[in-house]
Amino acid sequence: SMFSIAGPIGAVLGGLAVDIMGRKRIIIASHCCMFFGWLIITSAQNGDMIVIGRIMEGIARCVGATAST
């Protein structure tokens, strides 16, 4: 559910960022952010860290999807 909440935020941010920085840089940045989101999830000590990681990963995934289309 966190992905569904974070998705629209990432889509809007991705559209704006593509105009400013370009597609290639945004896709690379979104993959780095996605990596750190999954790193937070895998090293989570409590439920809050999992939620933060999922939000971060959801935003990054939608930013990357917006930039790649």
UniProtKB/TrEMBL annotation:
Keyword Transmembrane: yes
Entry superkingdom: Eukaryota
A single GO cellular-component term on record: membrane
Topology term for the membrane: Multi-pass membrane protein
Protein's cellular compartments: Membrane
Residue ranges constituting the Major facilitator superfamily (MFS) profile domain according to the UniProt record: 1-69
Transmembrane domains' residue ranges: none
The keyword Transmembrane helix is assigned to this record: yes
MF terms (GO), sorted A to Z: transmembrane transporter activity
Principal location class: membrane
Keywords associated with the record: Membrane, Transmembrane, Transmembrane helix
InterPro entries according to UniProt: MFS_dom, MFS_sugar_transport-like, MFS_trans_sf, Sugar_transporter_CS
Protein name: Major facilitator superfamily (MFS) profile domain-containing protein
Originating organism: Diploptera punctata (Pacific beetle cockroach)
